[in-house]
């Protein structure tokens, strides 16, 4: 029998009155008996959902339908965000799971859309039928718009794998890296892990609540400084660690800041005074860990020099031609067109058909004005730099001239004092001594040795007189017996005389 809804229908055949009585009390989703005729079932069938579509086909849509639809879709994002922020409890969990699934699906759709229009080789497809001779060596192709980012990153890692001091390291198992921490009253929960290796934690790091912290990094294994060796200077410096760039074991270890052998870290080299070609101070550089910090209690690393790696790769195969990139061309101002469309005013409104022309011309004009301003600013900076450089050179030249005048004045004063001493020394002075300023005076084999100051020249312009006098060859009239010779006087220049103890 059919379901009753609020009244007794009574007996009767399936006529109009019976159907009317049933319609009055029966719920739309109620089940009808199988014995009901088709025309009765049709009355209780759900309404036709195509009525709205039929109405649109016949009468069209409202004039502002698409504008209202665009605004509704634009507001939907903010409305969903507000709902997600206000939700809490079980509803929040369900809502977040739903939005997460939507985002994953959207990313998959975008990725499939991007990998659509670029041709790639596809060896899996085998063409049907016979092929001409010139097509035998060709492979099938499939369309894809761009290579995957993961493939690019793998290629970069593979290319850069052999440009570090330690290209290969030993793999570390998860059991060796983590230790299971059991929690709960009966110690049955085992979802926490404690890191057993050295780690780096940044300055502004804040721990999560204890109940929410999955990975525990002990304070005793946290390091902030590393002993970094400079390969060219052959010196070691203790530098501050700025971050973990790459851990070869796993990306998760990189995110956790685990420091193992072969890890590339970033260190602060501002204390070393390293500068770039433009004169800027280098703040951070990469270094690779060369020891096991958890065993040694310290971190030893080698500084990675990009230029050094490039030179090593270049000298590995000297016969291979080196690639020298061309310098970038300076931006030139594009001249204005001879004829421009006058699309300004009311005809260039946002809704007109000429707006794109006006927008493009305005953008080009703004680019031209920007380039002109940059060029003028560059010329002003260069003129200011040349002016300052000339000013610095003039100051240096004035200072040098002043010091030169002081030296000449002091030299002339010393020369005058030497002339007075010469007049009082007597007639025993030797006239063969050259008139040159002396720094030291020695007797070598009984002869005088004269040293001249660097850059000073004698009045005669001769350099042959400097040094010990040549020995006089022995002759029949030559007597080797020592005689009492008068002391040698210093003339015309200040000299430093060194008297030996035996000759006094």
What's the short story on this structure?
This protein is α+β, with helices and mostly antiparallel strands and 504 residues long. The protein contains eleven helices and 14 strands.
What does this structure look like?
There is one protein chain. The chain is of the alpha+beta class. Among the domains are: 68-108, no CATH class; 174-304, Thrombin, subunit H (Beta Barrel); 358-401. It is built from 11 helices and 14 strands. It has helices spanning 16-25, 38-43, 51-59, 65-86, 90-114, 149-160, 174-177, 251-256, 293-296, 306-316, 355-425, and strands at 119-122, 140-143, 178-183, 189-195, 198-199, 215-216, 225-230, 235-246, 258-259, 264-268, 284-289, 300-303, 438-444, 447-452. The strands form 5 sheets. It has a 5-stranded mixed barrel. A hairpin with a 4-residue loop joins strand 7 (225-230) and strand 8. The longest helix has 71 residues, at 355-425. 8% of the residues are buried.
What would the keywords be for this entry?
504 residues, alpha+beta, Thrombin, subunit H, three-stranded mixed sheet, 11 helices, disordered N terminus
Radius of gyration: 48 Å
Structural class of the secondary structure composition? alpha+beta
N-to-C CA distance: 151 Å
Q: Record the strand order, biggest sheet.
A: 7-8-10-11-12
Give a short account of the largest sheet.
5 strands, mixed, barrel
H/E element string? HHHHHEEHHEEEEEEHEEEHEHHEE
> Which regions contain 5 or more consecutive residues with pLDDT less than 50?
1-12, 436-440, 460-467
